[in-house]
């Protein structure tokens, strides 16, 4: 009997050809049954097969909240989250992912290796390690890239799923931290592959603001006070050292200010044990 995989594809209906390709890559999976929902984030997608279910949200609620909106619409102990500009590299992706979860009951979330469809070099952030190394090499990680990932449903329930307040940027960091705090591991799997264009974060006009604001919210929501101060101090230095334009620096400053000023959701600090597990995995929650 094939396992059932719940699949949530998120779209704003601005890339119909890419969305169709993403959906077809899910429907073409072998060795599993898929329960698929396409979440239209403030828009209704078209150009899809008639039997594909669509959940249209009345407004764009952001990427993490959009993913959360699809979770209860599908059944399966494992959930695939797929952005509309990504697609699975082969037709046994989900079957092999299911095998990884079956073999390790402590595995909470899996992120695959990300390849550019045109053969371009993928950005460093697609391999969520301080030392990227060989992107074909698998390891436990502390953060994750969110465009394609598979999660255990019970893990999402215990960790609180995606942080809807973030809208976009850094939601994968919070999810990974909360998953680790719940006692599970987050795994980068080089043997699983997905396709996504090698695009820069800067394509989003408010990336500096969102990144800075959510960075503060990450610390406020999740870190013990002493670690939070060190974490934000490190990132403040890194962020301002990297920018080359005055306008970007101003957006960073505005984001950090609003992150401190605005509530950003409830506080639930991770345990010191979780912080130690992150450190052992190669990335303490200081950077």
Features:
2 domains, 9-stranded mixed sheet, about 290 residues, alpha/beta, Spore Coat Polysaccharide Biosynthesis Protein SpsA, Chain A, 9 helices
Please provide a written account of the structure.
The protein is of the alpha/beta class and 287 residues long. It has 2 domains: 196 residues, Spore Coat Polysaccharide Biosynthesis Protein SpsA, Chain A (Alpha-Beta Complex); 79 residues. Strands 1, 2, 3, 4, 5, 6, 7, 8 and 9 form a 9-stranded mixed sheet that branches. Helix 1 links the parallel strand 1 and strand 2. Helix 4 crosses helix 5 and helix 6 runs antiparallel to helix 7. The longest helix is centred in the last third of the chain and has 18 residues. It is globular, with a radius of gyration of 18 Å. The N and C termini lie far apart (44 Å). 44% of the residues are buried. The model has no long low-confidence stretch (mean pLDDT 95).
Summarize the structure in short.
The protein folds into 2 domains: 4-199, Spore Coat Polysaccharide Biosynthesis Protein SpsA, Chain A (Alpha-Beta Complex); 202-280. The protein is of the alpha/beta class and 287 residues long. The protein has helices at residues 16-27, 63-71, 93-103, 153-159, 171-181, 207-222, 225-242, 246-261, 272-280; strands at 4-11, 33-41, 53-57, 78-83, 87-88, 107-115, 139-141, 148-152, 185-195.
Level-1 CATH class name of the largest domain: Alpha Beta
**What structural category characterises the helix and strand content?**
alpha/beta
Total helices: the number is 9
As for the number of domains, it is 2
Largest sheet: 9 strands, mixed
Classified in CATH, the superfamily of the largest domain is Spore Coat Polysaccharide Biosynthesis Protein SpsA, Chain A
Radius of gyration: 18 Å
Strand content: 15-25%
**Global geometry:** globular
In the predicted model, the low-confidence regions spanning at least 5 consecutive residues are none
Order of helices and strands: EHEEHEEHEEEHHEHHHH
Q: What is the CATH topology assignment of the largest domain?
A: Spore Coat Polysaccharide Biosynthesis Protein SpsA, Chain A
Helix content: 25-40%
Q: Give the CA-CA distance, first to last residue.
A: 44 Å
Strands, count: 9
Question: What does the average pLDDT come to?
Answer: 95
CATH architecture title of the largest domain: Alpha-Beta Complex
């Amino acid at each position: 009997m094939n396992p059932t995989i719940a699949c949530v594809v998120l779209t704003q209906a601005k890339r119909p050809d890419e969305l169709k390709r993403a959906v077809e890559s899910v429907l073409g999976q072998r060795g599993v049954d898929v329960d698929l929902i396409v979440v239209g984030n403030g828009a209704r997608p078209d150009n899809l097969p008639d039997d594909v279910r669509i959940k249209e949200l009345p407004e764009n609620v952001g990427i993490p909240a959009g993913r959360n909106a699809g979770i209860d619409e599908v059944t399966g102990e494992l959930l695939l989250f797929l952005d509309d500009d990504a697609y699975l590299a082969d037709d046994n992706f989900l079957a092999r992912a299911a095998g990884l979860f079956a073999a390790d009951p402590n595995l909470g979330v899996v992120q695959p290796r990300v390849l550019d469809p045109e053969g371009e070099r993928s950005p460093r952030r697609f391999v969520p390690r301080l030392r990227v190394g060989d992107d074909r090499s698998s390891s436990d990680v502390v953060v994750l890239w969110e465009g394609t990932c598979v999660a255990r449903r019970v893990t999402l329930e215990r960790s609180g799923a995606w942080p809807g307040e973030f809208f976009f940027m850094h939601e994968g960091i919070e999810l990974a931290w909360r998953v680790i705090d719940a006692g599970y591991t987050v795994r980068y799997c080089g043997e699983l592959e997905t396709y996504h264009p090698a695009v820069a974060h800067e394509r989003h006009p408010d990336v500096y603001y969102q990144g800075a604001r959510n960075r503060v919210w990450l610390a406020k929501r999740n870190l013990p006070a002493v670690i939070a101060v060190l974490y934000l101090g490190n990132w403040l230095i890194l962020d301002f050292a990297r920018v080359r334009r005055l306008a970007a620096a101003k957006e960073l400053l505005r984001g950090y200010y609003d992150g401190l000023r605005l509530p950003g959701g409830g506080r639930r600090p991770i345990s010191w044990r979780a912080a130690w597990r992150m450190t052992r995995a190669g990335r303490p929650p200081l950077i």
